[in-house]
């Protein structure tokens, strides 16, 4: 296996005239780029919370022993005992949405420093929030170009149910407004307004997570609709933030793995109450979400796009431990399933099929990604092709292209044959 790229150690101060400060070796990337001392408070440091910036740590909180084999198909590399307590371990069998969110960088933590608490806006709503609510109602939930739902769903019913749910759950209201601000940051041409909307989105998301973290609601028949809407919107928000982080591949990939863990975990939890939700007024909404998860991959017609990848995984079987081989083989099987679903479903539902893949992959596959196993990275790049195919969906944007190009550069020429289809996909649409 190719070892992960290690960050170079910071150079010592070159001059005694420059005021020295204690380096924070494990600080977040934003503080390092801004040459500020980071308090290393996870998942959001005080500096990033105060400035409304996206806080990302390049080093995990727990040390993970990683394999340092060669560049060819990876040799056996089992997760160390240290990885057992990693954030994704909660995602393997989540019991509550709070536990899933609390295991990722999104959680503002139950302990919020005084300076951070002062930087958060109080839960008051003004004209700017009305603007965001109006945009949510008239554009995101109703406009067919931005819709995630098929034409046969009554938009008025959708808007009424979403707003009614948000009125009884402040954390949902704030996250919906944050999502609206996020969309405005994309469609607004004015650069200064883009920055302002993105800042509002960050603030509102932090406030939503703080409220959620304080309440720690458990999914029940009474609040299942609010939890479903909150988790779904939060997952899309996290993907957008991940997709816009176009810097070092190691940090970009770490954020992507965090997103996969979060999305997989929250969908697993909320699915526990889908029987209740399916009897609600939004049964048509959830039915379109669950429709894409019903068929087992073994019954799917094998699409040609992933046949070559599956054959390569099987040929390299001896280089895997059994659990990792099964995880990668299964992940490719679900890619075949996504391909088949995209051929059969209407356009809005194709996006749900693409977003279903992170829910269907196994915990062992996520571990292989964390270890930077080349085969696992290649599989992720194949999923990124579907993100690229739906790049007109504003949340996806150019995330697929960035992930494919970054993976190709990271793996190098040895894996060029494995990466042939993803690279062909982005070259053919450029």
TrEMBL record:
<feature type="region of interest" description="Disordered">
    <location>
        <begin position="1"/>
        <end position="25"/>
    </location>
</feature>
<dbReference type="InterPro" id="IPR001138">
    <property type="entry name" value="Zn2Cys6_DnaBD"/>
</dbReference>
<keyword id="KW-0539">Nucleus</keyword>
<dbReference type="Pfam" id="PF00172">
    <property type="entry name" value="Zn_clus"/>
</dbReference>
<dbReference type="GO" id="GO:0001228">
    <property type="term" value="F:DNA-binding transcription activator activity, RNA polymerase II-specific"/>
</dbReference>
<feature type="compositionally biased region" description="Low complexity">
    <location>
        <begin position="73"/>
        <end position="96"/>
    </location>
</feature>
<protein>
    <recommendedName>
        <fullName>Zn(2)-C6 fungal-type domain-containing protein</fullName>
    </recommendedName>
</protein>
<dbReference type="GO" id="GO:0008270">
    <property type="term" value="F:zinc ion binding"/>
</dbReference>
<feature type="domain" description="Zn(2)-C6 fungal-type">
    <location>
        <begin position="27"/>
        <end position="57"/>
    </location>
</feature>
<dbReference type="InterPro" id="IPR036864">
    <property type="entry name" value="Zn2-C6_fun-type_DNA-bd_sf"/>
</dbReference>
<feature type="region of interest" description="Disordered">
    <location>
        <begin position="67"/>
        <end position="118"/>
    </location>
</feature>
<dbReference type="InterPro" id="IPR053157">
    <property type="entry name" value="Sterol_Uptake_Regulator"/>
</dbReference>
């Amino acid at each position: 296996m190719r070892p992960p790229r290690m960050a170079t150690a910071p150079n010592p101060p070159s001059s005694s005239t420059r005021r020295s400060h204690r380096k924070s070796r494990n600080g977040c990337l934003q503080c390092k780029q801004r040459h500020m001392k980071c308090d290393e408070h996870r998942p959001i440091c005080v500096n990033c919370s105060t400035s409304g910036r996206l806080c990302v740590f390049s080093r995990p909180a727990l040390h993970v022993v990683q394999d340092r084999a060669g560049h060819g198909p990876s040799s056996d590399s089992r997760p160390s005992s240290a990885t057992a307590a990693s954030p994704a371990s909660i995602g393997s069998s989540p019991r509550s949405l709070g536990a899933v969110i609390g295991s990722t960088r999104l959680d503002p933590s139950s302990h919020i420093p005084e300076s951070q608490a002062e930087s958060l806006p109080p839960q008051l709503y003004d004209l700017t929030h009305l603007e965001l609510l109006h945009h949510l109602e008239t554009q995101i939930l109703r406009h067919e170009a931005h819709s995630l739902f098929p034409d046969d769903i009554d938009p008025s019913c959708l808007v009424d149910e979403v707003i009614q749910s948000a009125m009884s759950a402040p954390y949902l209201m704030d996250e919906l407004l944050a999502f609206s601000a996020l969309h405005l940051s994309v469609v607004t041409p004015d650069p200064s307004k883009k920055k302002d909307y993105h800042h509002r989105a960050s603030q509102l998301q932090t406030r939503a997570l703080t409220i959620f973290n304080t309440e720690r609601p458990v999914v029940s028949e009474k609040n299942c609709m609010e939890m479903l809407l909150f988790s779904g919107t939060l997952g899309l928000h996290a993907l957008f933030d991940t997709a816009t982080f176009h810097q070092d591949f190691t940090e970009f990939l770490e954020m992507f793995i965090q997103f996969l863990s979060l999305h997989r975990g929250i969908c697993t939890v909320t699915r526990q109450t889908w029987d209740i939700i399916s009897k609600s007024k939004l049964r048509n909404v959830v039915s379109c979400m669950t429709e894409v998860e019903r068929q087992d991959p073994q019954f799917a017609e094998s699409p040609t796009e992933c046949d070559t990848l599956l054959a390569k995984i099987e040929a390299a079987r001896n280089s895997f431990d059994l659990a990792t081989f099964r995880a990668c083989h299964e992940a490719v099987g679900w890619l075949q399933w996504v391909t088949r679903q995209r051929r059969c479903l209407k356009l809005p539902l194709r996006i749900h099929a693409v977003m279903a893949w992170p829910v269907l992959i196994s915990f062992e596959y996520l571990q292989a990604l964390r270890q930077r196993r080349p085969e696992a990275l290649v599989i992720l790049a194949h999923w990124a092709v579907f993100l690229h195919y739906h790049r007109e969906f504003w949340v996806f944007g150019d995330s697929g292209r960035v992930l494919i190009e970054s993976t190709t550069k990271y793996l190098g020429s040895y894996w060029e044959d494995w990466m042939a289809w993803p690279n062909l996909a982005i070259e053919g649409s450029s």
